Automatic annotation (TrEMBL), chains A, B:
Gene3D superfamilies: Dihydrodipicolinate Reductase, domain 2, NAD(P)-binding Rossmann-like Domain. It comes from the Bacteria. It comes from Thermophagus xiamenensis. Residues 138-385 form the Saccharopine dehydrogenase-like C-terminal domain. Residues 4-134 form the Saccharopine dehydrogenase NADP binding domain. Pfam families: Sacchrp_dh_C, Sacchrp_dh_NADP. InterPro entries: NAD(P)-bd_dom_sf, Sacchrp_dh-like_C, Sacchrp_dh_NADP-bd. This is Carboxynorspermidine dehydrogenase.
Amino acid sequence: MSKVMIIGAGGVGTVVAHKMASMPEVFTEIMLASRTKSKCDAIAQKIGGNRIQTAQVDADKVPELVELINSFKPDIVVNVALPYQDLTIMDACLETGVAYLDTANYEPKDEAKFEYKWQWAYHDRYKDAGITAILGCGFDPGVTSIFTAYAAKHHFDEIHYLDIVDCNAGDHGKPFATNFNPEINIREVTQKGKYWENGQWVTTEPHEIHKPLTYPEIGSRESYLIYHEELESLVKNFPTIKRARFWMTFGEEYLTHLRVIQNIGMARIDPVKFKGVDIVPIEFLKAVLPNPGELGENYKGKTSIGCRIRGIKDGKEKTYYIYNNCDHQVAYKETGTQAVSYTTGVPATIGAMMYLTGKWKAPGVFNVEEFDPDPFMEELNKRGLPWNELHDVDIEL
Amino acid sequence: MSKVMIIGAGGVGTVVAHKMASMPEVFTEIMLASRTKSKCDAIAQKIGGNRIQTAQVDADKVPELVELINSFKPDIVVNVALPYQDLTIMDACLETGVAYLDTANYEPKDEAKFEYKWQWAYHDRYKDAGITAILGCGFDPGVTSIFTAYAAKHHFDEIHYLDIVDCNAGDHGKPFATNFNPEINIREVTQKGKYWENGQWVTTEPHEIHKPLTYPEIGSRESYLIYHEELESLVKNFPTIKRARFWMTFGEEYLTHLRVIQNIGMARIDPVKFKGVDIVPIEFLKAVLPNPGELGENYKGKTSIGCRIRGIKDGKEKTYYIYNNCDHQVAYKETGTQAVSYTTGVPATIGAMMYLTGKWKAPGVFNVEEFDPDPFMEELNKRGLPWNELHDVDIEL
């Protein structure tokens, strides 16, 4: 008998609700809550079978969250709302003594930082209260860190070079759309690049470093070095790492659109006074861009995300490439959303399962690579995100 | 002794105020009014000498306009506000019996039409009231139509082919900015192309037809066939015209920015509900783009706008090219605004002068080519917009 509360009814929330509903042996009672209850109701209705209860909650407001958590009494809260809301939801979990899981780190509204410091600062309070918090349990961050932990456990004595590679070779047929919340997506992609090398962070201009990389079943795609949040926890948790980088593929048209969006001021995250109202340009842009949750139907092609690792095993140099490919159409047929939401929602579901089955349970605030990767890796293969590994191949990096 | 009221305190209003202030022999008393009085005060202060009185008025509201006109009692109202406001200002002039002049045709808020029909519909009422209304007295529309009338009067028995060519070879040093109100600019440029041929309008896809044209003192620039409002009145007033087209130069980067602005939905003119407020994307975009009035200081290079005409004189084929080149820096030094505002504001000033000196005065609503071009052409040479003419040259079109 377990109870889980999902907060957030976007594409990822849709996937999490679908997946959890299909696993009654783990998730007995499921509540889906968001600012807009009708979005939850629509998802619940599509899933059917009275599997999903729904509720309205403003995740910016701790008292509202506390009241809802106290009335439903979940064993864990799965936060797939906006990253701005991580701290209020963590506060509410702390106050009610309920476990916490999310898929993206907290981000202040007024600056794009992608740092874990605000959430890590909760560690002692969670530890003292005997509550588990699992941070960044989507695909990236999430599975990429678990892949790294799996590699460290089974295939390396020391990891020296880590390159996380994220390719979306899908085509949604729109001139421009982002694959998840445009506000977060554009913030992430337009920031300066950053990677870890020899004990310090090296900063680059946005998209300054790029090269073609070959992705399995896809082929060559221009890949750009960007900063991604899991690098911060991975270099802390795997101190033998000499260099850690993150690469993402972008099409030329996508980058042109981003460049223009910045040039015209629509990527700004500071408010502009308009008709007496404070309006943040990137938030308004989100309102006019295609809804990422609705891209699924015509989305064709695959994503390919993985880790390319070099290091030492038994005194010898070794290379290792572990990845998952996910097909947009297959994801859509199962859950009604495309692969970018699917690859985030399935790991969040598995993470909650790990907690509820006692495999990932420890008082404090943890990144996913701090837990045993093996049971999680086993579930990935069963729950729609099978992985492949290649040993001693040319990893190009 | 004459009194003139300028409505609108943008770049064009700034130029009109400067020019009128420098011509006390024509403009004895000048009032500058706009929605934001502080903008008028700033312009008046810069001009100095107590030449400009200022007032606040909401040009969307006829009663407010009527009250202000009745209190100041101008001989003519020069409308350099938004094209949306042409009809309310025309209503107020009709009610108060005051002459009217504008620089751009009325446009309904909810559709981009660029048609004169709404304003032409006032003709009988203005005629019956004995009031003069002068439409489209900027550069284009405006001087381009006066150039055509001048050509028809002095150099042609029949004009057959008219090509208006508008080149802005200036560089403002910003990644993207529009030269006048971005809302109107983007509406105009992103619409379908349209030209007159053999008694009917031919429609093209946006930017479908383009070719390099050579501009005097500038060189070759890719020029795009777009629709421009003066074509409508010119083919009506010069019925011998077999084909009338309008060409404008755009840089590749400018067009890329426009394409993206459309792709992302920011060129939309229908309201989007955001935070409970109706927001028209293109109006919000205007709020985040650089203010065209502030581009002047670093604007380098020239504009070149003119008419390339083919027709018959004394039974023989003839070509004729009449144009003005205007330097952004020179315009800025004189009035604090760049050439695009300057080339619009100076003709509006001369048009008001034509009315006040009795040279252009007739009850009814008129386009500028319906008046005698000669006194206007003479003033262009004296007031900062000298023109050149070339006979029997290769006009490329």
